[in-house]
UniProtKB/TrEMBL annotation:
It comes from Thalassotalea euphylliae. It holds the Pfam family Bac_export_3. This is Flagellar biosynthetic protein FliQ. NCBIfam families: fliQ (TIGR01402). It comes from the Bacteria. The chain crosses the membrane at residues 15-39, 51-70. It is found in: Cell membrane; Bacterial flagellum basal body. PANTHER family: FLAGELLAR BIOSYNTHETIC PROTEIN FLIQ. Keywords: Bacterial flagellum, Cell membrane, Cell projection, Cilium, Flagellum, Membrane, Transmembrane, Transmembrane helix. Belongs to the FliQ/MopD/SpaQ family. It is a multi-pass membrane protein. GO terms for biological process: bacterial-type flagellum assembly; protein secretion.
Length: 89
């Protein structure tokens, strides 16, 4: 295996990890920011208030985006397995 192939596989896998994680984390960050702005505007200093909306949004992102996440992961795995003969020879 040449170093270029290894770098390409590593780059593709890192891009996939960033894509999959950001699809789950970004909605939670947005809701956390909205709740933090609401807390600052109303002077409510309750730490647990931001936890439940972020948890719900994260679960909804997994429910609605789960099919897409698994599809991306399966496509990458199939592409990686199919490239084994060309990399080995």
């Amino acid at each position: 295996m040449s170093p270029e192939v290894f770098v390409d596989v590593l780059r593709d896998s890192m891009f996939l990890v960033i894509l999959l994680v950001s699809a789950i984390v970004v909605p939670s960050l947005i809701v956390g920011l909205i709740v933090a702005i609401f807390q600052a505007a109303t002077s409510i200093n309750e730490q647990t208030l931001s936890f439940l909306p972020r948890l719900i949004v994260t679960l909804l992102a997994l429910i609605f985006g789960g099919h897409w996440l698994v599809e991306k992961l399966m496509d990458y795995t199939i592409r990686l397995v199919n490239s084994i003969p060309s990399v080995v020879s």
